[in-house]
Design a protein that fits this description.
Elements (H helix, E strand, L loop, with lengths): L2 E5 L4 H12 L4 E5 L10 H4 L9 E4 L2 E4 L1 H11 L12 H16 L1 H17 L6 H22 L14 H10 L7 H8 L3 H13 L3 H5 L1 H26 L1
Parallel strand pairs: 1-2
Antiparallel strand pairs: 1-3, 3-4
Length: 242
């Protein structure tokens, strides 16, 4: 029975799991859980993930949620996975765990705080929260600086490795959510961090062609969101002159 992977491609952790499965040739069935229409709250999905978030997997009778746990499981459960994703060496594994734990409390909180309160929330009818967006950006910038000066100080990839690990794919997918911002804001936030920008490109190349294919829905949403924001900006400018 093929692995079942429950995802929404607009979700950063979902994309990380999908790219990982594809790049490692894991046989799986992708099952979409549309979070914009609240499919994650259905009774059927609650039976798979009581936390009602994506991603989740079902492997035979085994169910698992939380993307970092899923990535670790896949590395251990499928013998064809290359060792650099999750090395057997205890020290290297521990460093990967350190990055993944740091991710949830820093980079992820910053990215979600900024993008949700700037773009996703308002475009889905929720009130904007400028203060929350500002705090999210502060945390995001601190996180990018830490990536630049610490996590990427010893090599092309996180923890000083010459090849990507599950930490690289998870964190790069997180940063890709910034593509939903305006081109100006995205460049303003990322361009000061040269190592980070190069690391993103290196991770894309290491996971090609699957990286761009899985992110296709994000790029479509980017175009849609930027057009809507531009339209709103013009409307507001016209109103201000009336």
């Amino acid at each position: 029975m093929a692995l079942k992977v429950y995802v929404d491609r607009m979700s950063q952790p979902s994309r990380a799991v999908l790219i990982f499965c594809k790049i490692n040739g894991i046989d799986f069935e992708e099952i979409r859980v549309d979070i914009l229409t609240n499919k994650q709250f259905s009774p059927e999905y609650k039976a798979i993930n009581p936390m009602r978030q994506v991603p989740a997997i079902v492997d035979g009778r085994f169910k698992l949620f939380e993307s970092h746990a899923i990535l670790i499981y896949l590395c251990c459960a499928f013998p064809g996975v290359a060792s650099h994703w999750y090395p057997a060496d205890l020290f290297k594994r521990s460093k990967i765990h350190s990055v993944l734990d740091w991710h949830h409390s820093n980079l992820r909180r910053g990215t979600v705080g900024l993008v949700f309160n700037t773009i996703i929330g308002p475009l889905n009818g929720l009130p904007s929260n400028a203060q929350a967006a500002k705090e999210g950006e502060k945390l995001l910038v601190r996180s990018l600086a830490k990536l630049e000066d610490f996590w990427l100080k010893d090599g092309r990839f996180l923890t000083g490795s010459l090849q990507p690990s599950i930490a690289d794919i998870s964190l790069v997918c997180e940063i890709m959510q910034l593509e939903l911002l305006s081109e100006k804001d995205c460049d303003r936030i990322l361009s000061p961090y040269k190592k980070v920008v190069q690391w993103i490109e290196d991770t894309k190349k290491a996971t090609a062609p699957h990286f761009d294919e899985v992110h296709g829905i994000l790029f479509k949403a980017q175009k849609k969101f930027r057009e809507r924001v531009a339209t709103e900006s013009v409307k507001n400018e016209v109103k201000s002159k009336m």
